[in-house]
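Problem: given the chain below (428 residues), write out its structure.
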Amino acid sequence: MSARPFPVPGRPAAPDRPAARRRRRLGAAALGVVAALTLAACGSRPSEQAATSTEPIVIGISLPLTGDFSQPGGEARRGYEIWQKQVNAKGGLLGRQVQLKIVDDASSQDTVVSDYTKLITQDKVDLVLGTFSSLLNYPASAVAEKNQMVYVEPAGGAPNMFTRGFKYLFFAQQATAPHQADVFVNYIKSLPADQRPKTAAYPTQDDPFAAPVIESMEKQLTELGVKTVYSQTYPADTTNFQSIASQLSAKKPDLIAQGAVFEDGVGLVRSLKQLDYSPKMLFQTSAPSNAGQYSSAIGTANTEGVFYTVSWSQDAKTPQNAEFVSDYQAAYKGADPAEDAADAFATAQVMQAAIKAVGKIDDQRKLADWLRTHTVDTILGPLKWNETGAPQGQFLIGQWQSGQSEIVLPDAAKTADQIVQRQGAASG
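Solution.
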């Protein structure tokens, strides 16, 4: 659900582009992070319990439970906690119960650095797991790397996460951000020429995870002959989408592809609805994957035909998925899990698999080396990584159909027989 200062291969930098401004702002933030990290104890390691200890294994996690990313951060917490309950009910890890030490980074880069520094060097946790969004995982993973601790993250696929030569970083989804929309682009390529969109608009949040998805899509569709009629980046704290919606309505693109986290995706759909305008095709990044929260926010009728990228399907026949869904629904009054909860659960599964294979937790390098050379079966499906910790797989494309979210691409993972056409937003 995802820093998330990240250049996109194939697009030259230009000082007057929104992407360039975004990289400068995040680059400045990264300098602050580096300064903070120099104050941390380089190479400081937690004191490990002996392999035969009966003390709990303590896993430190900082999550955005408040601030801009509180919605996906809260879901990530749920996913981690459901994994904890399941693993403890089956005897724990290495015969030891698992204890989660979760703190709130308030969606702040500075706070997340402080949090992981304290968890590792003062609280001396045995293991760490990642936070939500590339924006926060970028500096947090640097803390873990300096302290030589494996860092598996549930949401941090921005491309520059994996250009730093880190040895302990792993992203527990199927692909990095620039490759998220590849399956959707290939679907458009497969359409007869008269059924492809002729024009497209690309509004995207100033978010280093969402932006590369949309930038990659725009580049690929432009090469296919789809004309760009709008391409703008809006601030992450934007709440009023009337102006953007008005511009889109005036240009009437066949396709709107929005880099949306959650609230911004809801906000744009609501504003388009007020103008009684809906494109023939609507694609959003992670916003529509937030289960019933999305349909409740915009109205079920307005979800019909919306495409989105997703890492997980509630109906997938993957290891522990049915158990995860059932436990989530039991814990949260029948609510369906959001993708961010599933990603966090899978992140913990990855760490669990490495510990089970290595047989101990006091050699973090062995855990990292094992992950780099093995495939792990998770509720997202099989995950594997290259030398940088970047995943080597393929994302899923979801679509809302008749009030339900379905997987429509690729064919091997689909839960619906066909892709539906968007008929336009409902008025009520």
